[in-house]
Amino acid sequence: MASLNSRALPAQELLSTLPAAPMLDAATVRAARALARPPVLIVLDDDPTGTQSVSNLPVLTRWDVEDLEWGLRQETGGEPVPALYVLTNTRSLGEAEAATRNTEIATAALQAAENLGVRVGFVSRGDSTLRGHYPLEPDTLAAAITAHGGAPIDGVLIAPGFPDAGRITVNSTHYCVIDGMAIPAAETEFAADATFGYASSHLAQYVQEKSGGRISASDVLAVTLDTIRNGGPEAVAAVLLQASNATPIVIDFVVEEDLRVVALGLLLAQDRGRTFLHRVGPPFVRAIVGQDQAPPLTGTDVYAGLTPSANGGLIVVGSHVGVTTRQLARLKEASPETTTVELDVPSLVTQDGTDHPDRAAHLANAVAAICAALATGNVILQTSRALLTTADAQSSLALSRSVSAAVVTAVQQVLAATAPRFVIAKGGITSSDVAAFGLGIRHAIVRGPMLPGIVSLWEPQDGPATGIPYVVFAGNVGTDDSLAEVAAKLSA
């Protein structure tokens, strides 16, 4: 079929012809949910940056039944939490491992819900720039739900937008807004990802591409901005009610209010007996559960109730996308006193993914340098910026995992020797592994964003990092100054 991708154009031009945005606040969604009593959402987050749009919700890095029960027992504002996050880190895994992990988590969540008498639904949180295991993950969840005796899935909402980070969907085409230009996602650096690359910006065609033609673009339903803004919740519900047998439904949105209309339409469709899964970007859960867009946390907020370490903070940078490289350079310019310790990737891992003979010695030297420098200020732990090329996607993932394992080892050894004032992890795979293994976080509470709508603060609830603020910073979000801004806020 002919490409449906659009050209790059000024964002203002793209948005100027759209119907007026709806006026709908989060309180209206909360009130509708209070009447409908929808299921608690179990959000399987393929890297921890999915939490950056929400606040005061639990996040788990382990998924035994007892862990899910802990999450389901948490409260916010005196009410049971409307959603909880489980960090899967599947974006760093191959397909077979990703499928197994999704099945394990869904099965444990369904058992925990049964034990507690709670109804649950599922969200597969994916990348706002369309990377990740799609359609594998929602397909796997749907199979796990029915295997446990749950109702078959009627539709899968696909809503990758993330307006806070410049990712919007208009007429089913997904754009990244960069320097005022709305660029179709397939024309950005993210589409050239070594593991999850793609060629289609139009989401129906993306579904066809990623499903290998199993799902035709013509069979994909669309909730457009015209439906949302001119038709309202009933019109949205009318589209959703057409779904059966896990029909993909692509969702336009440009502002939070668009998603709130979708939230009300979803409640109507669920009330009429339909069951849905969701494959979404970070802000979807916030809008669907009726959370307000939380203001950025201040330094006072971050350290409330804590006794900060006298040491500097540790800033771990693993992402290699262009925006991270620019942010890292700007951080060093803004804080020239910050020490940088670099893990040289060729000294850690060979081209075929095996450990380099000098790996242990290289790590020991790096850890000693970090511990010494933390006594006087902040330290950047970064991996060398030159990407090693590999033969295929699986080799690329294997190399990434090996490098990430080295970063984890360094963080573990630093934490065993001294307590940083804070830890920032930059990059999805990096922040996942640092949280779960480097810092030993099993349960945490997401307190809110460090910048408007992006970059989340976790408060560890257990393990050696208890009392150390942990900031999850996606590799592909923010301006060139954002990393420096967050580091300055945490250092004040």
TrEMBL record:
Keyword Lyase annotated: no
Coiled coil start-end: none
The Four-carbon acid sugar kinase nucleotide binding domain, residue ranges: 314-483
GO molecular function: ATP binding; kinase activity
Domain Four-carbon acid sugar kinase N-terminal: 41-287
Gene3D superfamilies given in the database record: Four-carbon acid sugar kinase, nucleotide binding domain (3.40.980.20), Putative sugar-binding, N-terminal domain (3.40.50.10840)
The entry's keywords: ATP-binding, Carbohydrate metabolism, Kinase, Nucleotide-binding, Transferase
Highest taxon of the lineage: Bacteria
Protein family membership: Belongs to the four-carbon acid sugar kinase family.
Protein's recorded name: Uncharacterized protein YgbK (DUF1537 family)
